[in-house]
Amino acid sequence: MTLSHEKLRADRHSRIRMFPRKASDHAKSGGSVLPKEFYTRPDLTQPESDFLGSIATNMCMEVIIYAQENGGSVKWKHKNSSRDGVQIFQGEEFGGNEDLTYVCGVNTIRGALADVADLFHLTNDDKLASYARVFEPDLIDMFTIHDIVKPSLENPLHYIGVRWSAVESSSPLVKNRDFCYLECQDEFVDTRTNKQGWVRCIHSINIPSCPSLEKTLGFVRGSYYRSGFVVLETDKPGILEITHVLQVNFKGSVPAWWRQQTLRRRYICFAIY
Asked: Where is this region: Disordered (predicted)?
């Protein structure tokens, strides 16, 4: 098997469809949009699992860095604030790819790190529905291809896996997109403030067990880079700062306004959490 970036003792992967939330032209009534052969994939070998685990750990660190105002090579400029208090930033990267769209949203919420992490522990359709309603309102379907590291009693907030998801276009002139990505969730300590934090990172990968579905379902395969959520404790007990970073290449020919609109829709829902 050949694994690569777009530039793991592995648990058995989930072979069940997680969430048929929206109707699709390609979906059977009450079923997934995915073809049957998508569900029969070989397990990862130990070297493959270790390789993906290493990538996941590195990507988590990068997301934490890029979520900072002056972190990494992306410079964030404040654009506006939503009526619900979400601060929205647009990013620019020196020498970056013009096809990449950089958007970041920052908000404060009440709760504990474990509460937020639990919202991303997508173990059933109800939890995925709650997640989509708040963070990904354009979600069509999601599928866990490989569970590499599952939460345990020793590390309840740690997860690594490979997932596929499809999102609905906001315009009939632009095709729906899908993504195959490595996901990692973990705790960390902010060395600047000594505050506890939690991160959820997603980063696109090329993997044979997640082939293109453009010919069969019409989904154009996009890419996430160093994207995700960074949640930090604040000086106020029970108040968390949550930062949502998205660096996305939607691929294909799509206008800049559509790209910005698609990503900002997520921050509108993000505000209600």
From this structure: 14-34
- d(CA 216, CA 209) in angstroms, rounded, equals 16
Asked whether the predicted pLDDT for residue 17 surpasses 50, the reply is no
Domain 4-270, CATH among 3.40.50.1820, 3.30.530.20, 3.40.1440.60, 2.60.15.10: 3.30.530.20
For residues 96-106, average pLDDT? 84
In this prediction the pTM is 0.84
Q: Using 50, 70 and 90 to split pLDDT, how confident is the model at 20?
A: very low
For residue 270, name the pLDDT band (cuts at 50, 70, 90).
low
Q: Please give the Cα distance from 142 to 178 (Å, whole number).
A: 9
Torsion of the alpha carbons at 137, 139, 143 and 149, rounded to the nearest 10: -40
Residue type, 24: S
Q: Please report how many Cα atoms fall inside a 13 Å half-sphere around the Cα of residue 144, on the Cβ side.
A: 24
Q: How far is CA 186 from CA 110, 133, 145, 149, 195, in A?
A: 20, 23, 20, 11, 14
Going from N- to C-terminal start, the domains of the chain cover 4-270
Q: What is the DSSP letter of 212?
A: -
Within 10 Å of residue 169's Cβ, how many Cβ atoms? 17
**215 sits in which H/E element:** helix 214-217
